[in-house]
Amino acid sequence: MDKIVKKFKEWIGLKEKIDSYKKIYPQFREGEVWWVSVGENIGVEISGKSADFSRPVLIYRKLSNEGFLGIPMSTKIKEGTWYSIIDFGNKKINIILSQVRVFSSKRMHTKMGELSKHDREKVSLDFFNLYFLNNKKFPPPLLEAGSWVNPKYVNSIANHNKSVKLLVPFYSQFNKVTLDGWQDRACAPTCLKMVLQYLSDGDFKFSIDDLILEGTTIVGGYIEGIGWAHAGLIRIAHNHGFLAYDEEFRSIKINIRKKSFEKSDFEEELVTKGIKKIKKTLENGVPVIISCSASFTDKHRPHQVVLVGYDEAGFYYHEPEARDDSGANRFVDLETFRKHWRKFAIFLNK
Q1: Cβ proximity of 328 and 339 under 8 Å
Q2: Could you tell me whether strands 108-114 and 32-37 are parallel, antiparallel, or unpaired per DSSP bridges?
Q3: Per-residue pLDDT tens for 66-90?
Q4: The whole model's pTM is what?
Q5: Are 50 and 109 in contact (CB under 8 A)?
């Protein structure tokens, strides 16, 4: 307790000194990182370090020469929607979005550097997702109150285009699955883990191994020689409190007299509608699990991936069969997608 009291007294003394500084404000701009005297604070409020109680702070929005909206930074990496992880100064840095606040420019000491355009866009998207995504009480003014936040709007701020790319966590079935004999059969539960982890804001505690064991316990969850049944994946999602359903965008023409089947005239139209529905779901901030040919090339091997975004040319997806992070945010052009999509999709939500 005495140590805490001593720190508060030291900070109060320094705070009085900072407040007495003459009105000579440093030249700064948005996107820069400065050492800032954050202070010794209380509860969940982040504090500074060293004798000047400082830490790196991102200048997120310059309000005037006298103050700015800043976001404290840390080298301690944590995952979740409260944080935005970037590369800065040849190391991974955590932008602690939950600690955003207004600072007087009198607190500023030394400029450390400036974020790249790519990292500024990432921080803006993460900031928007934390403070506006699913915030039905305070939605952006461009949307109806209570509606889903449209990530298109987010990206129009950062990129000035109409693309959508959700920040869905990526997992490799070969790195995360430890059950014997399951690594090469775990694309579906790995996809499910990615989506549920995203929808729960990083709080989904069950591993891919857990989902495999649960799925193989469900009757018909996994069928030897065939693979994972959509109904089994949906049941797992329901068991953990998530909404889920699958939809098939196929259409066949049945000749009742000949008892034969052929491709329907409506199939292409139905596929187009399915693609529109997938895009709309992504716009609403929700990734989609789809069935496709493995690697979008091998029609003889069914596979599942997570669609995490799209642009005018095609879709972005997470490839669970990748053995490292190169599986994240891969791209497939629309023509290839239509050719190798198996016309099945699983839609999930909270």
Answers
A1: no
A2: antiparallel
A3: 899 999 998 888 888 888 988 887 7
A4: 0.57
A5: no
